[in-house]
Amino acid sequence: MREVRLSIVGFGVVGRGVTEVIRRKRAEIKEKFGLDLRVVAIVDLWGAVLASSDGKGGNEIDVDKVLDALQRGKADGLSPRESLETHGIKVEDMQSLEVIKEVEHDVMVEATPTNVESDGEPGTSHILEALKAGRHVVTSNKGPLALHFKKLMRAAERADRKIGFEATVGGAMPIISLREALAGNEILSIKGILNGTCNYILTRMSEENLPFEHALREAQEIGIAEADPKSDVLGVDTAVKLVILANALLGLDASYKDVSVTGITEITPEALNLAKNNGYVIKLIGEVDRDGKLEVAPKLVPKTHPLNVSGTLNAALLKTDLAGEIVVVGRGAGGVEAASAIIGDVIRIFRSS
Length: 353
Prior knowledge:
With 353 residues, the chain is α/β, with parallel strands linked by helices. Helix content is 42%, strand content 21%. It has a six-stranded mixed sheet, sandwiched between helices. Helix 2 (63-75) packs across helix 3, helix 5 runs parallel beside helix 6 (142-159) and helix 8 packs across helix 9. The longest helix has 21 residues, at 13-33.
């Protein structure tokens, strides 16, 4: 049995999803893969919880106790720090870089919010510091990879450590890992629906003849869209994911700034109805090929096409030289879905080491 110690940097929806997946799957992962996943540090803007300070004094954090404290505290209107301290969990005044450097662990899970406006920070520094400290990295943060893919891969190679980033594209949809599954193939192009929020909005607009603003408000009310949905509906999120796929699967050296981007804010119910009457749907499609095409834009998709998926589903069509066309479909949104990809990366890292 191999003990794998994890730190979680960023304890929002995805970070909490990781602890939830570990809680559900720990025994199964032990039995099937011989890995004992232990969370030894959790850090966010409010401070850090360490294995030695969670009120238990053991060699891992009691994630059940932490999740329960946060849930109870939120119901009482408390901040995360107040929630934890009220329930006997000590919060250390440590910043993320301190935890990455000073707390002994094997894998740093980077789950802070994506930022493509300010050099991918703080995620970029987190990843580089973790590699420097001899940690493997698994991340759901798209910003660092969209802006500094080659730099981060070179840093991982120098450190003899691995970066897992399946969770950056498509949530639970396994697409980055196709690098191994399609070994021997050359991937010629990728096109796909890479944003569940946009796909949900377009689906609702088409099915119910709703205006964009109404469908967006509905998506926000049920928790699919953020309070500030610009990154999704303007196509930024899709563009960032497209760059990661371009670099990881096609071997390009692309950056977010190389993508031509058009969002979905100008699409009307009338346009959707016209498409429907002619056998098409309108989807926000990201497309990249080896000739350097990097484009995100609403496109007509035949109703019978495999990319015609509804709701929050994501889908990608990969064209290869040997295997022909490969289609991958999966749930593209949700903390547990992203966490499933993170845990999958952790398992792959240690099964291959």
